[in-house]
From TrEMBL:
Residues 1-21 form the signal peptide. The lineage of its organism: Bacteria, Pseudomonadati, Pseudomonadota, Alphaproteobacteria, Acetobacterales. The keyword Signal applies. It comes from Falsiroseomonas frigidaquae. It comes from the Bacteria. Gene3D superfamilies: Bacterial extracellular solute-binding protein, family 7 (3.40.190.170). Keywords: Signal. PANTHER family: EXTRACYTOPLASMIC SOLUTE RECEPTOR PROTEIN, PTHR33376. The keyword Flavoprotein does not apply. Pfam families: DctP. This is TRAP transporter substrate-binding protein DctP.
């Protein structure tokens, strides 16, 4: 009897220890300001996770880069013990992983249908890339589709007219694609763009209508033409320290992945993006901006052909799995 009681007590203490081990408190690094929609998604993830686990799993979210970490360092940072979680936009990873940073380029994706078609191949490739750094991809948060429009000081309605002016872009791959089209493109930092447009350093800028008001560009660029493409809609990757992730109980791992999946679904509002872009265009029209017709189908095909060449070059230079990822995504897109 005594032996049985001792065995029962041992089992109870063991269960209590297991239950205690289920209580988890992690830190989630967020470099974005609290007002950004991404920050709201992260807060929602933390709240959803706490609800799913009945308070056993807590994510303490540090917003506005309160942890003083650099996006460019994230592949290195997430291999350490602090923080346990974060998220990153792959183009920020260019120093450490060129293939992930170039996994999509401007000139590939035009609409929600194309993005939905490539998303499984895109996420499969990104997950492979992240795990190569011994980091766990818990899930994804969608950036969405932002119309890539040309804002100009004077009317520019065609690629031929664009070849006669100076265009500001935001990245090397955009420079290469437009130069292949015969356009004089250059990178101008966002904080210098208003003055550059006002003084004629550049005549046009590739910029999303939905956020052009944030730098008041509509005050000095009264003409806009959509290219027909979105800015590269590469999703954010939700990251976890791999050792800490693997140390979670099966229940807590499943809850974390379910909460991440819910955030991805909430952030994937691709059809609404088109409506939001049109609402932005309407507001800008009220401020005196003229929107000219979207580039023609032939012009869009020329942009895509140039972008495909840029993409192939970047992924070949990146080496490793880059060319295989490009082939996988291109096959899903169905574009030559």
């Amino acid at each position: 009897m005594r032996k049985w009681m001792l065995g029962a007590m041992t089992a109870l203490f063991s269960l209590a220890g297991t239950a205690q081990a289920q209580n988890v408190e992690w830190r989630f690094h967020n470099s974005y300001a609290p007002t950004r929609i991404e920050s709201q998604h992260v807060r929602d993830l933390a709240a959803d996770l706490r609800t799913r686990t009945n308070g056993r799993f807590t994510l303490n979210v540090f917003e506005g880069n309160a942890m003083n970490l650099r996006d460019a360092d994230m592949l290195r940072t997430m291999q350490g013990a602090t923080p346990e979680m974060s998220f990153i936009w792959p183009p920020f990873l260019g120093r450490d992983d060129a293939a992930m940073s170039s996994i999509l380029v401007f000139g590939l994706i035009r609409n929600a249908q194309e993005l939905t078609r490539v998303m499984p191949a895109l996420q499969e490739s990104l997950s492979q890339g992240i795990r190569r750094w011994n980091i766990e991809p818990v899930g994804y948060m969608q950036l969405g589709l932002l119309d890539a429009a040309i804002f100009c000081r004077s009317p520019v309605r065609t690629l031929e007219e664009l070849r006669r002016v100076k265009l500001r872009v935001g990245s090397r791959e955009q420079v290469e694609t437009f130069r292949a089209l015969g356009v004089a493109a250059q990178i101008v930092p966002q904080q210098e763009l208003y003055a550059a447009m006002q003084t004629g350093v550049v005549d046009c800028a590739l910029y999303p209508p939905r956020i052009v008001h944030t730098i008041s560009l509509q005050e000095v660029a009264k003409h806009a033409t959509s290219t027909g493409f979105a800015f590269p809609p590469t999703p954010y990757i939700i990251l976890a320290n791999q050792a800490r992730f693997r140390a979670l109980s099966a229940d807590n791992r499943a809850a974390l992945q379910a909460s991440a999946a819910a955030i991805e679904q909430r952030s994937a509002r691709f059809e609404q993006d088109a409506a939001d872009d049109e609402a932005s265009r309407e507001r800008l029209r009220g401020q005196g901006v003229t929107f000219h017709p979207t580039f023609s189908e032939a012009e869009q095909q020329a942009i895509r052909t140039a972008a495909m060449g840029t993409w192939e070059t970047l992924m070949r230079e990146a080496g490793g799995q880059g060319p295989a990822w490009r082939a996988r995504i291109q096959s899903a897109l169905g574009a030559n």
